[in-house]
Every structure is written in structure tokens, then in C-alpha cells.
């Protein structure tokens, strides 16, 4: 049974953030809200936790995982960022955007695209996520939680139903009192000279002005 943490969305309680971070350091997998959808995540440095995330989402090892970073300077540690990519990312973060970039050696093989050697990185516009990242000191895996389409037998589900469905799969659930969002991030491929939108999601209409 997962431990539930009720955390204020704008002024997260430091003690609760520290308790969640302690659990993540020990290998916990959590369900948590982002600025797009609820996500399943863990500390990027804990291999066993990453493997559990893959099992929960039924992802094979050739399917890359996205992770959250707190800033552009932190992104540069985990990905090769060209001058043009830097300018684009700087205009769009924080926000609902996933940037595909060439991975550095700091990105675990279990996370990156094994063929392209790329990785997907986000800087979320979400206070709880940013406080967790700051306290943890490592990126956090962020893959969308099972959406209502995965629970067709339930029809439309809200936060309570999502928690009920996932609580046996994860160790920690963060509740900010808000209902889950169902619009995913916009994915922007910055691995080539010409940036390309791979998936249109939240904020897609702003990308044209940034690239």
C-alpha cells in the first residue's frame, strides 16, 4: 500500500518533500502531479526503481523514458545542447515541453533510446516537482501514469479513481488536491540542425515562435 502525502501545490511543506526524497533515495517509485499529467517516477540513479517503472508501464527496454531536470544548466549535464538548441530551450522552459537531445554518459542505458543514444528531458512548470528535484539532487523519471484509456472498464476517472488503481503499484502518492490533467507535453526533437515537433501537446502553439 502506497504512502499518501498531501502537499500544497504552491507552497510545498519542506518536511513532506524531505520524506518523499528520502523514500526516492531508497528506491521508491511514486505517482506525482506535473504541469501536464500525473506521472510515475523515481530517482534516475536507482536502477531497480527504473526497472519497476518499466514494469508498471509495460515498457520494453528499447522504449526510452523521459526525466525531469530543474534547469537548463542541469540539462546540459545529461545532454549535448548546441547553441541553437540552447536558445530554443531557454525560451520554452519551464513548461509542458519534452526535448529530445543526444544523451551524455550520465544518462543510464535503461533510460535513453538505445539506438539513437538520445534522451527526453523536461523542466516542468510545477512547484512540487521543482522542490523535489532541488531536494533530491538528481533528475526524476517522468512517464505518464495510466490514463483513463487504460482503464476502459471504469470510463472517465478522476484523482480518487487513479489513486485506487495505482496505489498497489507504487510506494508513494503525492496529492496536491488538484484533479489530474490529461493533456501530454509537446515533444520537440532537437537532435538535428532543424528542430521538429514529434508530438503536439500542451503549449504546441508557442513552439513556432521559439524555433
From TrEMBL:
The keyword Membrane does not apply. The keyword Transport does not apply. Its EC number is 2.7.7.87. The lineage of its organism: Bacteria, Bacillati, Cyanobacteriota, Cyanophyceae, Oscillatoriophycideae. Residues 14-203 form the YrdC-like domain. It comes from Laspinema olomoucense D3b. It comes from the Bacteria. GO terms for molecular function: L-threonylcarbamoyladenylate synthase. This is L-threonylcarbamoyladenylate synthase. It holds the Pfam family Sua5_yciO_yrdC. It is an enzyme of class 2 (transferase). Keywords: Nucleotidyltransferase, Transferase.
Amino acid at each position: 500500500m502506497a504512502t499518501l502525502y498531501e502537499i500544497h501545490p504552491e507552497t510545498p511543506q519542506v518536511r513532506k518533500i524531505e520524506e518523499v526524497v528520502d523514500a526516492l533515495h531508497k528506491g521508491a517509485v511514486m505517482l506525482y502531479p506535473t504541469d501536464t499529467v500525473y506521472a510515475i517516477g523515481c530517482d534516475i540513479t536507482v536502477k531497480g526503481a527504473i526497472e519497476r517503472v518499466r514494469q508498471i508501464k509495460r515498457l520494453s527496454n528499447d522504449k526510452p523514458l523521459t526525466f525531469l531536470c530543474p534547469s537548463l544548466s542541469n540539462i546540459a549535464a545529461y545532454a549535448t545542447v548546441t547553441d541553437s538548441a540552447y536558445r530554443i530551450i531557454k525560451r520554452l522552459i519551464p513548461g509542458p515541453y519534452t526535448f529530445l537531445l543526444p544523451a551524455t554518459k550520465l544518462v543510464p542505458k535503461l533510460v535513453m533510446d538505445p539506438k539513437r543514444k538520445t534522451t527526453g528531458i523536461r523542466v516542468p512548470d510545477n512547484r512540487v516537482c521543482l522542490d523535489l528535484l532541488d531536494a533530491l539532487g538528481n533528475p526524476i523519471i517522468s512517464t505518464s501514469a495510466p490514463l483513463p484509456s487504460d482503464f476502459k472498464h471504469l470510463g472517465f476517472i478522476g484523482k480518487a479513481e487513479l489513486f485506487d488503481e495505482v496505489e498497489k503499484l507504487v510506494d508513494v502518492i503525492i496529492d496536491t488536491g488538484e484533479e489530474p490533467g490529461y493533456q501530454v507535453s509537446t515533444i520537440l526533437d532537437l537532435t538535428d540542425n532543424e528542430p521538429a515537433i514529434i508530438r503536439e501537446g500542451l503549449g504546441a502553439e508557442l513552439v513556432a515562435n521559439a524555433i
